[in-house]
Amino acid sequence: MPRSPLLVLALAALTLPAPLLAEGEAPATIAPPPEGSVTRAEGLAAMARIHEVTTHPRCANCHTGPENIPMWYGGAAGPARPHGMNITAGDSRMGVETLPCTTCHRTSDHLRSGLNAPPHAGLDWQLAPVEFEWFEKSAAEICAQLADPDRNGGRDWMGLAEHLVEDAGHRGFVLWGWNPGGGREPAPYDLQSHVDDVLIWGVAGQPCPEE
Amino acid sequence: MGTLRNVGRRAFLIGSAAVAGGVAFGTYAVTRPLDNPLLDGLADGTAAITPYVLIDAAGITLITPRADKGQGAYSVQANLIAEELDIDPATATITPGAPGPAYYNGAVLGEAVPFPAYDQGAVANAMRDFMAVPARIFEMQMTGGSSTVPDSYVRLRMAGAVARETLKAAAARRTGLSRADLGTDDGQVILPDGSRIPFTALAAEAAMLDPVRDVTLRPARDWTRLGKPMQRTDMVAKCTGTEVYGIDTVIAGMVHATVRANPGIGGEVRGYDASEAQAMPGVQQVLPVAHGVAVVARNTWTAFKAAEAITIDWGPAPYPATSAEIFAKLDAAVDNPDAQDHRQRDDGDIDTVLQETGDAVITAAYRIPYLAHAPMEPMNAVVRVTDTLCEIWTGTQIPLFIRDRAAAMTGLDAAQVRVNVLPMGGSFGHRLEMTHVEQAVEIAMALPGTPVKLTWSREEDMTHDYPRPAAVSRARGVVKDGQVHALDLSVGQSAMTPAWFGRLTGMSIPGPDATITTGSWDQPFAIPHYRVTGYRAPDMVPVSSWRSVGASGNGFLHDAFLDELIHAAGADPLAERIRLCLDPTSRKTLETVGEICDWQGPSPAPGRGRGIGFCLSFGVPTATVVEVTQTDAGIRLDQAWVAVDVGEVLDPVNLEAQVFGGTIFGLGHAMNCELTYEDGAAQQTNYHAYEAMRLYQAPPVTVRALANGPRIRGVGEPGVPPAAPALANAIFAATGQRIRELPLSRHINFV
Q1: Is B687 helix (H, G, I), strand (E, B) or coil?
Q2: Which residue in A14, A81, A86 is closest to B308 by CB distance?
Q3: What's the confidence (pLDDT) of residue B248?
Q4: What is the pTM of this model?
Q5: What interface predicted TM-score (ipTM) does this complex get?
Q6: pLDDT tens-place string over residues B587-609
Q7: From the CA of A199, how many Å to the nearest CA of chain B?
Q8: Which residue in B has a C-alpha nearest to residue A11's C-alpha?
Q9: Binning pLDDT at 50, 70 and 90, where does residue B17 land?
Q10: By C-alpha distance, which of B509, B262, B273, B545 is closest to B397?
């Protein structure tokens, strides 16, 4: 194959925009395991997978710290570095007043994200709140954060799972993370597995790994 | 030192092939007046006094045959004519005109002579002047090598002066006055009584006269346009978005095409399935072209999408498939006696010095990557072929080579091929190639009478660019008593000139390829033991000239290692370069950059570093100082200062823009750019993976132009070569890290 597999993938993604969800179809189902059916070890294993997802470039690039700078890394973007063009999302996390994220990042029902084109998602683009910082955080740090209502939007574990599904239902960033298009590497596993892992972790009593 | 003893054979072959290989033809071609292309189809009442000035009742047209890739070439050519013709170029029509042999470039081959630029002896300069002869024989109407100004400086002013004096002669004949009593101003002949006759009213009479040839050029002190900031003639169109580039060409009835060719350049097509593409709405035709498949559609986007939908089985690339294999071949060539291409500098006795120095010899290995030209406007051309005519509209630096190739492909005479040269959205050397035009001709021949507009996608443009050659160097040096005592540089590279000239002409050039060491062997330093050797690695990715050509890479390979030696000697980087410099013009350039940056040594403050880079290229000594700061997140470029000497400054504002742009271009590529190869194909297909420098990373650049050099020179390219070593040397000064590989981002972060 003369072209790199990545490029073939990218071109396939450009030419074959597969429908992601049929109209009205739920993006993922919430079916927690029965209380007491999950061991602590299984909960920790689920958290390990959650950590893989949350720290993947598709997720972590916008879960950055108080500098309010989105990151670029992974795939064609290469090693971790600040988003090009000297972008800052500002204290609003939506872009400084003269240059909102939506200048380039489109809000659209179609998760179209061509090669070299800025991504589309169903919600207006912004950085996650600063207390949700995931970038280069350890599993212990992210676990503690997800378990802390002060740093997770006031949610219990079921609330987190519901948040994922609802965001995906709006064709938001969660769904985009697994359908980034344009040759970008998607987040690991898939949306349903990630929701299931949050539920497993929750039923297990939200165990967190040691530092 | 360049002497006749070690002259490269290729330089003579170009000349002697023309002279010895075809004396009768050659002599004839050299002495015969070249046809004035404006005389073809000239209307009554129109005077074409020289091939550069056309005047009729409606107005004045200035022919500016050297292509404009954004560097202001049309403006400077127009102003050279206008200075002597006494017109305001804003009142004239400015056009590249129809390509023709009269527009050969008499300066571009001057760089090929085996004398370093600082050698201004009689033999060296006679050879440079002689190189206009083969340029004329080969009909080299070509834009490149920063040669537009040196080539046209006298020629276009002469054209203006001849036209002016001939118009005065026509006025003299009409009025019965003596030509000596007449003056000119603002497009009019002025009679002694103060009355005026517009040039346009004299055109018909001037056409009846033999041109007045005994003209004298005005001295610089009398210039009204040259030497001062000019209003560039293309600025209004460019600033208002109304400039019509090649890619904007619209010809009635045209169809739109694109091509997907084997990304392993030159590889075959084993087979393809276009059924999906052919079923797409708006797709008119899918047809094979050399090494690829073309789609003809109702618009360019449809053609792009359809081309992507074709499944193609590519044959392998006819060169090593991966960057690792490519660099292994370069490493195998360098210092391999069987691969030695040329050695144009061999001062002192380097072998003895290295042997005597033993373990104290300082050694280093450097490598630089392939680089794409990546102009903003991807390659494109419109072609219409009929039984009697082939018309081509494209932005190109080589219109006559395109004419001849199209003639050969279509079976038409060269006179039946019309090349319309259009403004270019950048080139950096890419438009010295014509693969895309060949493809457009091929498609147009399949659709007789229909204008076919071929546009390459960015991905096609980058994967089918003939890049700047990758290179490796091995360097050895000796320092003694705080000074650089010996420098031995070996450069391994693939040959650029034979590859490029072969593609253009189908002719092979025997002998060495000077570009392998241009920018290293010819530097103006009197190092007591000093040797530069070029080694050629065969059968590599086909390469081409890239802004500043051989010097673009050698500027880094040579100057960064020189900096290592100076550091090892414990000397100051600027002071030691000045001490070593044997050329007064170059020395003044180094001294000047030190003055404008207030050089206080390489480390002005903790965490901050300054590096100096120097390269004499295209006859222009250029010294660059870059200052960087080490931050927690990486290296920040703070400032740059550049001093250049071009012999004579025609437009100080445009000069500053060219040098500033060349510096940023050189720095950006040094920071971030490379083409790597996998499966025989370039892996960087668009700007997301080949992004040079961001606007916010660009440092302020201060440019100081000098005019001490003996000859007027062009400045489109010389800003590039010293930028990379200046940056690498600055990073060393700030961090102690000596980076010997480009792009620098492989080893360090930039903020």
Answers
A1: helix
A2: A14
A3: 97
A4: 0.88
A5: 0.71
A6: 999 999 999 999 999 999 999 99
A7: 38
A8: B308
A9: very low
A10: B545
